[in-house]
Amino acid sequence: MPYKKFEEYNIEVTESIKKNFESIIDDLGEDTAREGIVKTPERAAKAMQFLTSGYEMDAAEILKGAMFKEDYDDMVIVKDIELYSLCEHHILPFFGKAHIAYIPNGHIVGLSKLPRIVDVFSRRLQVQERLTHDILECINDTLKPKGVAVVIEASHMCMMMRGVQKQNSTTTTSGFRGQFEKIETRTEFLKLISSDLS
Ligand SMILES: Nc1nc2c(ncn2[C@@H]2O[C@H](COP(=O)(O)OP(=O)(O)OP(=O)(O)O)[C@@H](O)[C@H]2O)c(=O)[nH]1
Ligand SMILES: [Zn+2]
């Protein structure tokens, strides 16, 4: 669900996170009673629950909901899937793009389900490496394709806004299973995701 109304959040959890944010904002030296801030703990509680809503979702079930028997056995690529996640070390965003490919083995999957599972695993406290493998293993175990590949390119706010303060570095992670472990297949995939014509 892209957007939850306040009533749809668990009231006790929201109340607890809200109290914690009140305390954090106070500790940071802000006036929690100030007009612009007074509703911020509640807003932040809702925002954080949305940004971690992937814990409540089952990615395998999402894929299983749209698997179709089909003989097509060439490469399927969905590239440039935007993602927003939170680094588990600083709870600051990292964001970028995922590129996913698979080679069907009797079943294809509804195309929208690939971006959906990217969201399920992104909306958690993550590291980019685990996010890459979560997506890869979920497709591998559920669809059981002849091969699957996942590449993620991302920028980490914890390296940009603070800490080492590098604005232009991006991190690339990748995972390959089955036929993508063969150099020719992997090279074809990497060529297609870097081409504007793919
Ligand atoms: N491998 C990996 N590291 C990450 C990711 N997100 C953030 N980090 C890193 O996690 C590390 C945590 O290191 P620490 O030394 O414990 O934390 P810190 O003192 O805040 O480190 P600095 O960011 O270097 O200031 C940092 O090097 C971050 O850049 C990620 O997705 N994958
Ligand atoms: Zn971080």
Automatic annotation (TrEMBL):
Q: Which UniProt keywords apply?
A: GTP-binding, Hydrolase, Metal-binding, Nucleotide-binding, One-carbon metabolism, Zinc
Q: Which domain of life is it from?
A: Bacteria
Does the keyword section mention Nucleotide-binding? yes
Binding annotation for Zn(2+): C87, H90, C158
Q: Which pathway does it serve?
A: Cofactor biosynthesis; 7,8-dihydroneopterin triphosphate biosynthesis; 7,8-dihydroneopterin triphosphate from GTP: step 1/1
Its EC top class is hydrolase
Q: Name one Pfam family in it.
A: GTP_cyclohydroI
Q: Which reaction does it catalyse?
A: GTP + H2O = 7,8-dihydroneopterin 3'-triphosphate + formate + H(+)
Q: Which GO terms describe its molecular function?
A: GTP binding; GTP cyclohydrolase I activity; zinc ion binding
Q: Which PROSITE patterns match?
A: GTP_CYCLOHYDROL_1_1, GTP_CYCLOHYDROL_1_2
Q: Report the EC code(s) recorded for this entry.
A: 3.5.4.16
What's a single GO BP term from this record? Answer: tetrahydrofolate biosynthetic process
Q: Which stretches make up the GTP cyclohydrolase I domain?
A: 17-193
Q: Which GO terms describe its cellular component?
A: cytoplasm
NCBIfam families, alphabetized: folE, PRK09347.1-2, PRK09347.1-3
Task: State the family named in the UniProt similarity comment for this chain.
Answer: Belongs to the GTP cyclohydrolase I family.
User: Assembly and partners?
Assistant: Homopolymer.
Protein name per its UniProtKB record: GTP cyclohydrolase 1
